[in-house]
Here is the input.
Amino acid sequence: MTSLPYFDADEIRSALPYTTAIAAITAGLRSGVDPECDSPRLFSAAPGGEFLLMPAQGSEFSGVKALTVAPQNPARNLAKIQGVYILYSSDTLAPVAVLEGASLTAIRTPAVTLTAVSHLAAAAPGLTPQAPLVLVYGAGVQAAGHIRAARAVFPAARFAVIGRSPERVTALCAEFPKLDIADYGAMPETAVSAADIILCTTSACAPLFDGSLVRETAIVAAVGTHGRDLREVDDVLVRRSDVVVEGRASAARENGNLATALTEADWAAPTAPRNLRELVSGEVTRRTGRPALYTGVGMSWEDLICAAAVFSAAEQSTRR
Here is the structure.
């Protein structure tokens, strides 16, 4: 085997701005990607954390993301998530590239979220203002990524943030000196009641706010937690919202935000939450007087689309 091209974090960020990632995810869903056919994520114990393997297959490329999750690392000023993505030719199953995994994850998660949010806004014309107030829960890597992705979709958006650590909130706001991000840590109920879009990017184990406070016209995206025993929103919000998930099978299996509000019968019913492919295809109708809730846990097809976009951009650049 000849040496494989390796794309580091800087090269991934350069090749995959949020507008490109969102467009690639939207195009993939519209051209036949079915989240219900995605392979389950594979978890295995690792020293002080766990291994996470995420395989996916497509017509041109297939791939697997191999990550480690180390919950104690942030306290040591080390990355919580580390790993690589291996991209393969679907024709020959030969590996064609290796990509740095954490930066790929840091881009694809906000890109998927804003794909959902933008289409939920489009499903109810006039409800989301051109300059929405976007409230971000969290102050880490994903919070910063979601702010950047939201700016790509809603250029005139105003931003507020709520985080557990005042120091991290200050550092997050400093990353965006031109945005004048408001720190609403002292007035969370006021912020929730006023927000047009709420982006939850935390590792919370309990709901972040009272779901009854969310405006009827608002869009909430809860994407920070993974596992049926962890959640960012309460059953009140789930039950009063039009709910969209990445994939029904994955959400029923792993999504704690929905674990107590939806039963097995609910998932099997015709009224079960719609998935991202159905949302992007225009099959979701928002009901009057209900907020919209998108909640995701991360799926393998998303990484494959983004990794293939990075590799294809490099291939096109080489041909020029």
